[in-house]
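User: Um, what's this?
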Amino acid sequence: MRFWRFLGNPRVTIARLIEGWGSETREAVAGQHILAVQDTSELRFSTTKENRRGLGRVKKGSCRGVVLHTMVALDATTGSFRGLVSGDVWTRSDAVKIDHRKRQIAEKESNRWITTAKAAEEVLAKASMITVIDDREGDIYAHWARTPHDKVHLLARAMQDHRVVEGGTLFKYANSTPFCAEAVIQLRTRDGRPGRDAHLSLRFGAVEMRRPKDCIEDDLPESVSLNFVEVIELHPPTGCEPVRWMLLTTHAVSDAAKAWQIVDWYRMRWTIEQFFRTMKTMGLQVEDSQLQSADRLIKIVAIAAKAAAIVMQLVQGRDGADDRPARDVFTVDEIRALETLAKRLEGRTNLQKNHHPHRSLAWASWIIAKLGGWSGYASHRPPGPITMHNGLKYFRAYADGWAANV
């Protein structure tokens, strides 16, 4: 009932919930080159013709649901998940009747790629460098023209075969560039595609992207300077769709080593797909919510996003590989609550002790995993998202009670 009232409180707005996404991230990124990966996912909720729950349509099928656009911060060197940055949650209204080509970018849903990148500058202000990474939907001319500056770079997979000042189009121009390197990379398992090794050929170069003919924004330049990195699987296994990634970036690409670095950074965007899976099927199962109000469903998605980010950080931090402090994820009061639980959860034998450094993220992960039902033995299967989520739910209830009695 308390949670129901919390969601219904008019002072609990979606803007304030999203503002809280980056509260711990601000300090966790200090002095680092951060990959700010953003993407969009649709969360579908069961409805009937008689009860749409106030939800709008999503793109896949005739379902109703909520749209979540979010950005996560990753350490560019290790890929470590540093936390949420910014984004938005909404449900679509009726179809817009004004032609897409006659609307300013600020009036389009695709503007989320630009506004989220802008919001990241404040949250990630203490980072030494920011590289915003988008998938193909983020390949927008206004984004290329407005987002990069100072220490902010942009990297995205090309969706459009852009016109280039050099003559013709991007893909045609790239085809005239010889391949200069080869490598084997491992493709992760995805829906409809098993994991496998891919033998890739690489080429790179510089291009000047022309302003689109149908662009109606008055403030955009006639062209923007970019570098491209293209990797192609020239001889895919029988029955497999060949890999072909055309990556565009504002980073300088002077040799093959730097080009492969761009490919590696782009591959790290897989983490945000894991984040969405943690929210849905791998942990929180937020789409099972029975809340009947779209306004409250939007808020529950925003809250679940923050929880999913913490779950992912706990899973990543469980072995202590990057020696992160618990304060990257938990508040001072929450760390004190964890300390009261620590001794109670340890067993009598040395194998049942929490050997991680005090107040490290690995130390906190061990405690949360034990609360979630993990045995504690290193020889057993390590705790995953579901175990961490269960432990986190228990801990939140404990921490609230502990704080009320301190």
Remarks:
- The first helix runs from residue 2 to 8.
